[in-house]
Structure formats: structure tokens, C-alpha cells
Amino acid sequence: MSGRPDAGQRLRRLLAVLTWLARVGRAPVSELSERFGIEPHELVADLELAACCGLPPYTPDQLMEILVDEEEVVADLGPELARPRRLTAAEGFALAAAGRAILATPGSDADGALARALPKLEAALGALPEEVGEGGLQVELGDATHLAEVRRATEGRRQLEVRYYSMSSDEETERVIDPLELRSADGHWYLDAFCHRAGGMRRFRVDRLTAVSETGAEIDHDAPAAAAAPFVPGPDATVATVRVDARGMWLVEAVPTLGVTPRRDGGADVELAVASTVWFERLLLRLGPHARVLGPPELVDSGRRAAARLLERYAEETTGVTG
Amino acid sequence: MVDRLERLTNLVLVLLRDGRPRSLREIADEVPGYPPDGEARRQAFERDKRTLREGGIAVSTATVEGPDQIGYSIRPEDFYLPELDLDADEQTALNLAVAAVHLGDPSGRDALWRLGLPAQTGARALADVPALPGLPVLWDALRTRAEVRFTYRGEGRRVAPAALRFHRGWWYLVGLDRDKGAARTFRVDRMTDVPVAGSAGSGTLPEDFEPRSALSEEPWRIGDGEPVDVDILASPEVALLVEQQVPSAVVRERRDDGSAVLRLEVTNVDALRTWLFELGEHVVVLGPAEVRSAVVEWLEATA
To answer: Could you count the other beta carbons within 10 Å of the beta carbon of residue B69?
Structure first.
């Protein structure tokens, strides 16, 4: 448990519980506790306190009618408290953004319940002006040619056969996979799937799938808990140290780092795990003159080598477009 | 000793009671738990008012007769929303959306609480979307047609907002830059201060403003530069991948070996280069000469 919530947080929570109780009349303590993420004893204490609140002269007929026992809460709070309450700007934004995000994701039903709920919500919050329109808030979790198929297969727990371009091995492969968890982060969709070719859990970037089809088989197992864990370097990874200047500092946000030592020029020495040479070379190309590999020795020349190879390609491809 | 939560709860109920502004003296008579002494009482009340405001409950003031002169109330229109009339399916859909999109702060959950739609548990997270302190301000400004001011690339900007957009992992504000007199796109996380919104109506857009001109799908089209048509050659291994990733690209040529020449409209050469290098030796820029040489110079500085 993190520290005891302050009075403001407790008030916010209590008003939320009261709004809900005003709507439903009665609810088991365990259900309320789960719905609002409150320990049962705290919930009971706050509700017992609320049962002593009301209007002057605080005679029983002026107090909120709440009966609490160990199992259940029964309340008769009247229609006013059941009304939805005004949202702060941050809350209104969060709700609209979440709704718009899901609605804009391929595979969502454009006439479904969410599509009907959002305009009602936005109307109540104060709609966007007409000249701004629905385009005023666009939350795109990213698209990919095969995203809708992958989403449907993941939700329907159906096996897929895919063609996948792997950045780390720089090749396209065909694999049978059991899609288990689909997630959007940093502007890309990632699919955690059991890969029958690799014999284990693998993370796929959905926009690197070039073909997707269902095999017809159903999936009867779940993702191991570890699949959702944050980045952990594999046993074969090498730890490299890269010195970046201020303009190369985006590296720290862009890849999982093992250590960052800031430098006086605004840059830093960054330690990161390198599991794939191809991936590391391409990262160094993007950093260009703003990065230098300090070690280990076998990786010191990675960026130089990759740049030299790419320059050769530029020397080969000098012809412009015909036609 | 009255628990502060009890005092706050009674305070809300009393201030909401009949819309009549009450002086602090009346409030202290009606709400148990305030100190008897004038100054301590005032401080306790100010603290409670601040707590309510932080919780999104606005306390209004009005002039009243009597020695205190100022009266306080919570206006029903500041406290309640109109009924939303959501059916059960729609409530569930909103709940699932909030559970699926991780904004990095509890605002979405708090919103559902306030609407009387507390979340069911067990929904799966689908996406991480960063919450930035400027976003609620920008969203409010968009709704009220207010001009926003912020610092960007070391410059103070005045912008009439046209759209907020989350795209490829970043939040963007699209709007009319008042000083430059043109549509511009700004990364919200690169605003070096929290934007400040002006009064409602101060950021009305001209009728002929076309936000689409500043909105773009690809990172290399988000920038201030003049648009340039860039031809790239994609190797057979990645030609299909590139076509799928960049629907706006025009295929100029398909070669017998499976490679393809694609034309992209670029306003941000740095962003283009970053994207190209993700595909290593599989993509090269054919032209125009100035873009090709910018990439070659970068590589020479790296090699």
C-alpha cells in the first residue's frame, strides 16, 4: 500500500461511491471495494462517516441514508446525488482521447456502442465547435496493413500463419504463430505471440507483417506472465557503451537503456544491450555523427562499417528514374 | 475532533443546498468542524476550498449583505452534467476504452467515477498513450476557440488551435501560427512550458483555414520545410513492406528484380533519413540531388 490518501482524494472517492450507490441502491462491500479499488475496511469507515453527513441540524432525517454492515451497503440517496458530475479538463480529455483512440483503431465497429456513446459524451462535455468538428481530436494508435486481421485473430484466439520481416536478422520468414497480446506503444503495434518456428514467445511489429492468414486452429493457452514484463536483455546480448552528444540524446528515450551517465556537453554515455548487430548498426546510422561507440572493441566500428556499406549502395545506384 | 472528510462532505452538501450564497460565518454555523477563531477559521475554509477546486469542484463567490460581504455557493451547473442517457452497452464500451488506453495518469478512471460509471475490472490494456500536462489546456482551448501561447524552439508562439492529434507515438497541436500567418504543427512534448489559453473566442480560425494542409500521415511530412518530391529505391526484400507502410507513396517504377522506385512528398529530411535508416541498405535515395547528397554527407560523417 502506498501512503494513506489525503482528504481530497478520499472526498473524490467517496463522492464517486455515493454517486454509484445513489444509482444502484445497494451493493455488496466486496463489489464496491473491487470497483473503486479501496480496501474493504477503508470503504466501510468512509461510508460510516458519510452516514453522519447531511444538512443542518443533522437530525437523523437530514443525514444521508446509508446502512453499512460487513457484507452489504444499502443507501437511499435521492436522485440528485445520482446525477453525473462535471469533469475537470484533464478528465474530459482523458475520456474523449481514450474513446477516440479505440474508435480509430482498425477492427473497431464504426456503428458500435462506443461510436454511439462518444457523441453523447462530447455533447454533454461541451462539443467541439463546428468548424473544428470531429477531426479536432484524433488519436491514432497507428495503422498497419494487417492490423485489423491480427486484432480479430487475437481477440478470437485463432492461430495465424504470417510472413514477417525481421529487422534483427534482416530476412523475411514464414511462421505459424499463436497471437496472444496485442498492444500499441511508441506509435507501433506489437504482437506478443507464441512462435511455433522459434518454439517460444516472440514480439512482432505488426507493420512488418507482409502476409497474414488464419490456419483454422484455435488457441487454448495464454501468454506467460513474463511476456508482459519490461525489456530484459537476453543471455546472448552484449552490453555496448555509446557516447552521444546533445543532438543524439533521443537515444535515451528511443531504446531500453541499462545505464545513462550524463556529460557536461549535454550528451551522455549510454549503456544498452545489443542482441542483434543489424539492429545496432541501423541505430548508429540514425545517430550518425552524434554518436560514437566506446566499447566493447568488436562493436566500436559498427556504425562506420554500416555507413561505408550503405555508401557503396549509393555509389551503385546512381541512375535516376526513367519514365 | 471532526474528521476532515466529514467536514468536506458536509461543506459540499451545504454549499449545494439551495443555490443561495452563504457567508463564512453562516457556513461555520452550519458545517461542524471549523475553528471558532476568525483567522484560523478563514484559513481552514480557504484550505477546504482549495481541496474542492483541486478535485474539480468550483466554489462561486457573490456579494451578500452583512459584515462578511462575501458569500459562497456551488452552482448546480458547475457541479452536475446533463444526464448522458447512455445505455448499458455504451457504458461498457466507454469503460473498456478507458481500460484499454493507458494515459499514464488516473484521469480516465476519475472521469468514469464522476459520471457514475465506475470501471469493471479485468479489461485488457491495448495501448499506451502519454499524458502530457499541456494536453487538457490545449483541448479546452480547442473547444472554446481560445488562442494558446507557449514556447517552442526558444520562441514564444501564439497559435489558434485547429486539432490535437496523437500520431506515431507523439502528440501534435495543429493550428494557425498567428505570427507566421500559416498553418503549423507542433510536438506537444517539445513545448518548453505548459501552454496558457486566452479567453474563449480569442483563437477563432479564419474560414478558409485548412488544417488538413498541416496534418500528415508520415513523419517526414511534419515539418516547416518546403515540400520536395523524393524518389527512393526499395530493394526486393522490402519493396512490399515499404508500399504497405507508406500508402501515400506513388510507385514510379517496378524493376524486374522485384525492387521498386517510390516517390514521397517530404518536408522534413531529417525525419525521412531516420526512417530510411531503419531499413539499412535496403533503401537508397535516388533524387533530387540535394536530398541525396544530404543523406550521403550524413553517412560520410558517420563512416
So the answer is: 9
Among A177, A203, A228, give the residue marking a domain's end: A228
Cross-chain residue pair B111–A87, CB shorter than 8 Å: yes
ipTM over 0.90: no
Same domain, A167 and A130: no
Chunked into runs of 10 residues, chain A (323 residues) has average pLDDT values of 73 92 93 90 93 90 91 90 89 90 82 89 75 74 85 91 83 90 83 87 87 92 57 65 91 82 92 86 93 92 93 81 41
Which of 256-295 (B) contact A at CB < 8 A? 261, 273-274, 277-281, 284-287, 292, 295
Contacts with B73 (C-beta within 8 Å, 6 or more apart), sequence order: B15, B16, B19, B20, B21, B22, B59, B60, B62
Centre a 10 Å sphere on the Cβ of residue A248 and count the other Cβ atoms it contains. 22
Look at residue B153 in the predicted model and tell me its pLDDT: 77
CA distance A268 to A261: 5
Helix, strand, coil percent values for chain B (each to nearest 5): 40, 25, 35
Give the CATH number for residue A12. Answer: 1.10.10.10
| Tally of domains in chain A | 4
In a domain, A322, yes or no: no
Residue A25 lies in a domain: yes
Does the beta carbon of B123 lie under 8 angstroms from any beta carbon of chain A?
Answer: no
Question: Residues 173..202 of B with a Cβ closer than 8 Å to A: which?
Answer: none
Q: At what angle do helices A302-316 and A277-287 cross, to 10 degrees?
A: 80
Per the structure block, which three cell numbers stand in for A268? 551522455
* Closest chain B residue to A7, measured at CA: B5
Q: Collect all residues with Cβ–Cβ distance below 8 Å to B109 and sequence separation of at least 6.
A: B98, B119
Domains and CATH numbers, chain B: 4-79 (1.10.10.10), 88-128 (no CATH), 134-212 (2.30.30), 228-302 (3.30.70)
Residue A233 lies in a domain: no
Task: Quick: pLDDT tens for B124-176.
Answer: 678 888 888 899 999 989 988 999 999 987 889 999 999 898 887 889 898 99
Q: Which domain holds residue A280?
A: 238-314
Torsions phi, psi for A18 (to 5 deg): -65, -40
Residues A200 and A153 in one domain: yes
Q: Say if A249 falls within a structural domain.
A: yes
B33-82, pLDDT tens digit by residue?
Answer: 999 988 999 999 999 999 999 888 999 999 988 888 899 999 998 899 88
Residues A224 and A249 in one domain: no
